[in-house]
Design a protein that fits this description.
With about 270 residues, the chain is an alpha+beta fold. The protein is about 35% helix and about 30% strand. It has an 8-stranded mixed beta sheet with strand order 4-3-5-6-7-8-9-10, sandwiched between helices. A 5-stranded mixed beta sheet has the order 12-11-13-15-14, sandwiched between helices. A two-stranded antiparallel sheet has the order 1-2.
């Protein structure tokens, strides 16, 4: 897909379809949330990577919406893999980002929907069904619809590392070296918080937090957050300053100065 084709996409139509997908995912997921009878499987033989009935039901519900409205587009989903398309567009889906939080009853997980071409995501949505907040970002801007109505999203522009709130999902972050890199950044920040999964990126976009630093990501973990944070005025890269949409290590920062401060530290971590 060419850049001209990307920019000629009907973002209004894309947004409407994404909203229908998120609505379908909400309906599929919420009966399982905080339900003691919800079944959980472990994807790993060594370790714990949970998947629930809700993950699978939500992704199938979103794929059904795409089959009706965008059957020629590609799909990359966490639970049911890749489906090639004909248009150069791929819908990148994580039905529940933060399944560990989901099975623990915390409302910090989310449904992730992105639309990408070969250059990466240009539309993203982070939906938190239980709270009822939906964060959306594209070239048309960034906004949140929630219990208090709709509001535009803007990252904080004047925050330095010493003033920053930094998030990551797991205290160990990734490898020993990656963990050391994160903690080196966090030691210079005002506040460090853990365990928020995709909701941390939404908080950066909304101007309530300033940095998210993670490692070991998959494309479906990061593509929707990239689009939302960047549409709100932030910056998302890998730890070397390059593209992050294929996963691995990622840093999301509220502004370029803060990004540069953190990247100076993270770039020293061996690849």
């Amino acid at each position: 897909m060419t850049d001209n084709a990307r920019h000629s996409c009907d973002l209004s139509s894309i947004t409407n379809i994404a909203n229908e997908m998120a609505d379908a995912a909400r309906a599929a997921i919420l009966p399982f949330f905080r339900n003691a009878g919800t079944l959980t499987d472990n994807k790993l033989d060594d370790g714990f990577d949970p998947v629930t009935e809700a993950d699978r039901a939500a992704e199938l519900a979103m794929r059904d919406v795409l089959a009706r409205h965008r059957p020629d587009d590609g799909i990359l989903g966490e639970e049911f893999g890749a489906l090639s398309g004909k248009t150069g567009l791929t819908w990148v889906l994580d039905p529940i980002d933060g399944t560990r939080g989901f099975i623990s009853g915390t409302p910090t997980w989310g449904v992730l929907i992105a639309v990408a071409d070969s250059a990466g995501p240009f539309f993203g949505m982070i939906d938190q069904p239980y709270i009822g907040e939906r964060f959306c970002g594209s070239d048309a801007g960034a906004f949140c619809d929630g219990p208090l109505g709709r509001r535009d999203l803007r990252t904080r522009k004047d925050v330095s590392l010493a003033q920053a709130t930094v998030f990551t999902t797991f205290p160990e972050v990734g490898s020993k070296e990656e963990g050391a890199g994160f903690h080196a950044v966090a030691s210079g920040a005002k506040l460090t918080r853990y365990g928020m999964d995709c909701y941390a990126y939404a908080l950066v976009a909304a101007g309530h937090a300033d940095l998210v630093i993670e490692a070991g990501l998959q494309p479906y973990d990061i593509q929707a957050p990239i689009a939302v944070v960047q549409a709100a005025g932030g910056i998302v890269t890998d730890w070397q300053g390059g593209p992050a949409h294929m996963g691995g290590r990622a840093i999301a920062a509220a502004n370029p100065h803060l990004h540069a401060e953190a990247l100076k530290i993270l770039a020293k971590v061996p690849a």
